[in-house]
Amino acid sequence: MDAMEPTSHTDAGATRSGDVVAVLAVKRLAEAKSRLAASRGRASDGLHRDLVLAMLLDTMDALRQAGVDRIVVISPDTKVLTAAHAAGATSVGEDRIAQPIGADRLNQAFAEASALARRRWPTMRTVMLVQADLPAATAPSMRAVIDAARGLPQAVLTDRNGHGTTVLLRGRGITEPPRFGPGSAAAHRATGAVELDPQHRRWPDLRTDVDTAADLDAAQLLGVGRHTAAVLDGARAPAPATNGSAQSETATKRLRATRDAS
């Protein structure tokens, strides 16, 4: 497991949460968010990959602005790792041929990155496993969820439909893999995780993970972060060229410039 050390970022207005380490897991960009790609049929592969990366960066922004300075991103994709490292995360390479697929692979990735976090920051108290597709996430909600989970061995925040998990907070002593995947909210509750806000009255921004075009629409209604907004604005902007291949090349350059500038 190879790791890149983070680039330092600070936010003078943030509340320090040094006892919390956030862990995010991302598939290869070519494989990530297949349901979203299918439901947004008009989007090109390049635009879709930029969108996946942008949602990760916006999720990280919300964490960092909430005072979570220690962030670990695990992925088999070098573009993801490079972007996460540049944004201040510890990037961990995950590329094992013998690994399982689907939810099992995701949970194993979370477990391996969590183990690295425990070794690297032995004084931390909480591992915060966060879905990497929360483009509407805000710092106040991140801080509030961390505060609500204090004193609990495990706490889970469910998605909009109440079946999935967007955030799982665990004491550092819990080492078994999490249970992300279909029905993960119930699975996490079965392991003893306390559901935060079971009436679903709070934190809609952290409940809105993006798996489909409808989810993306819901996130946009809440207000997405700067990286996701830039990608979506770039996708809507008309290209000056008249020929299709030239239009595609212009859009790709625009998005790449936006991503590199961030």
UniProtKB/TrEMBL annotation:
One of its GO terms (molecular function) is phospholactate guanylyltransferase activity. It catalyses: phosphoenolpyruvate + GTP + H(+) = enolpyruvoyl-2-diphospho-5'-guanosine + diphosphate. GO terms for biological process: F420-0 metabolic process. Transmembrane segments: none annotated. Pathway: Cofactor biosynthesis; coenzyme F420 biosynthesis. It is an enzyme of class 2 (transferase). The keyword Translocase does not apply. Phosphoenolpyruvate binds at T165, G181, S184. Its EC number is 2.7.7.105. Keywords: GTP-binding, Nucleotide-binding, Nucleotidyltransferase, Transferase. Residues 235-262 are annotated as: Disordered. InterPro entries: CofC (IPR002835), Nucleotide-diphossugar_trans (IPR029044). The keyword Nucleotide-binding applies. Guanylyltransferase that catalyzes the activation of phosphoenolpyruvate (PEP) as enolpyruvoyl-2-diphospho-5'-guanosine, via the condensation of PEP with GTP. It is involved in the biosynthesis of coenzyme F420, a hydride carrier cofactor. Belongs to the CofC family. HAMAP family: CofC. This is Phosphoenolpyruvate guanylyltransferase. It comes from Gordonia mangrovi.
